[in-house]
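User: Please run a holo structure prediction.
Assistant: Happy to. Please share the sequence and the ligand.
User: Here you go; the ligand is glutathione.
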Amino acid sequence: MLKLISATPSPYARKVRIVLAEKNIPFELVTEVPWDATTATPKYNPLEKLPVLLLDDGGAVYESRFILEWLEAKYPTPPMVRGDIDQRLFARQVEVVADGICDALVLVFWERHRPPEQQSQPWIDRQMRKLDGGMRALAGWAGGRNYVVGDQFGLADVATATVCRYLDVRFPDYPWRQMHPGLSDYSDRMEKRPSLANSVPVPQMISDKVV
Ligand SMILES: N[C@@H](CCC(=O)N[C@@H](CS)C(=O)NCC(=O)O)C(=O)O
């Protein structure tokens, strides 16, 4: 059976959990803290990041976007990327923005873990601009719509909904719901799907000193 190395708050791992569930692919969930020395991720991914999908033949697939591409190729039904070529490309564009927001948030998260006198406010501001711009883009694409692309749940929804809930958990002070009420409604609707309801992010205790 496939195994997924995941972390409870990880938006990247959640994308994979959602797609595995949507495609009804059985898998074992292995929960780790990727920032602690106890993690097995360096054994499978030279970049030392999760999610990592472990295959029956001993192989490993890593990098969330590539894992989703791999799953789409190996388990095409039901498809997560549908429609004409422009719709399929657009779904991937939305995922790029969603992942980019998460990357900026991870940088802010760790910057804020430094002692206050070592934190760089210009660096935090730069990342927060990406968050603001990225959320404006997602709100423009998802706000007021049932699904971001076409009329069925797919990759762009996985990516968009994952960012929204991650913000609620890790950055509860960021007022994205007030800034983008349409996106807020969209997120609440998406979270009712079983694949999302069964993978709600939860903060994790990190024991090691990372920065
Ligand atoms: N671009 C990667 C990002 C994955 C990522 O940043 N994962 C975090 C957990 S949420 C991690 O494992 N970080 C450990 C590290 O960077 O050393 C993906 O999409 O899979």
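The chain has two domains: 2-74, 85-193.
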